[in-house]
Amino acid sequence: xxxxxxxxxxxxxxxxxxxxxxxxxxxxxxxxxxxxxxxxxxxxxxxxxxxxxxxxxxxxxxxxxxxxxxxxxxxxxxxxxxxxxxxxxxxxxxxxxxxxxxxxxxxxxxxxxxxxxxxxxxxxxxxxxxxxxxxxxxxxxxxxxxxxxxxxxxxxxxxxxxxxxxxxxxxxxxxxxxxxxxxxxxxxxxxxxxxxxxxxxxxxxxxxxxxxxxxxxxxxxxxxxxxxxxxxxxxxxxxxxxxxxxxxxxxxxxxxxxxxxxxxxxxxxxxxxxxxxxxxxxxxxxxxxxxxxxxxxxxxxxxxxxxxxxxxxxxxxxxxxxxxxxxxxxxxxxxxxxxxxxxxxxxxxxxxxxxxxxxxxxxxxxxxxxxxxxxxxxxxxxxxxxxxxxxxxxxxxxxxxxxxxxxxxxxxxxxxxxxxxxxxxxxxxxxxxxxxxxxxxxxxxxxxxxxxxxxxxxxxxxxxxxxxxxxxxxxxxx
Length: 478
Description:
By secondary structure, the protein is mainly α.
């Protein structure tokens, strides 16, 4: 297919499937915590706006959660089908980590998800809130195990190679490998930031269409507070993550900076834009700022870090790709910072909800967090090449013995099926967002929206009971 090898097609296939999968868990992580906050505010303040928003976003959460589970199963199977040599070599580490994710996180989420989604009028307020918190906690635990596995592949430690197979000798070192804390923090904040932008875009879109009410305003207001707080925190974490990467994966840093070689006694400039040429071993059309590369990556005025020419050509990541994927991520991060700052200024001027230019900006920034996550993931994973386990196993040695024809056929199949299935799911989710939160009125005033038994006792039922009849109006929106 297009002159690509089976290895290249396998990489494209995995990249395609995980690009879909990484989006849904990111929203799941953010929305689960957002729902916990909304229910906590409802229980504390008894302001029905928070209850209405909880019911509205819980529907979107349920659709997104389902798509995340389906896409994750497909991705997991590829370890055995397309990367069997990797599984045989390092499965003793990655296998248990993924199993721990299922045993601790997925079961926790699944166990409380039903109560969270369908138990509003069937369990007490304490148990329902506890269920929501447990689902949110489960999403974070899931991210912890997945990132522990991925981070070990980036900065492996705590193992020995016996008879050509990885054998874990220290699970603490395996899990808490050098890059794990930075990746976990970076991804978690990215999920919260992406969800805030998604929620904020929904609120801004409704305001632009004239759907102005307290629920929509609360949505936008809470989202802008989260963007204001999380955007600068993410930049600080990213800086520390970069320093960690420079220590353990210097070739990746050289590639994403488009830095080829050091000159004695000279600082490294920051190349804002350019075109890294892998064959010519130079970055063409470079627009650069003197000394700034040294300041950012070494925190010294004339500091130096390794250039790509210090690594053998076969050990160099593709600088052309990661150079630009990194800049897309950083550029979107700066726009998020600007959005949060503008939101604060307009809030101070009491113009947050009626400045149409800002509302358009917030709407267009809706997918920015997810795009930044994808760009960051491409930077991380392509920057690790040509290694699947950094410095231990090459990607070319990890792929299964499939023909290019077989990989081409399955890749085309995945593309068609994914675009249909997840296209329909995403469209349905966006239709729910476009509908907007509804005012459920005071129907839950008695008992403040919760009861220890079904909301309508049998004695209050009107007429004959029909199990197929529509739910009572009291359940509207649940």
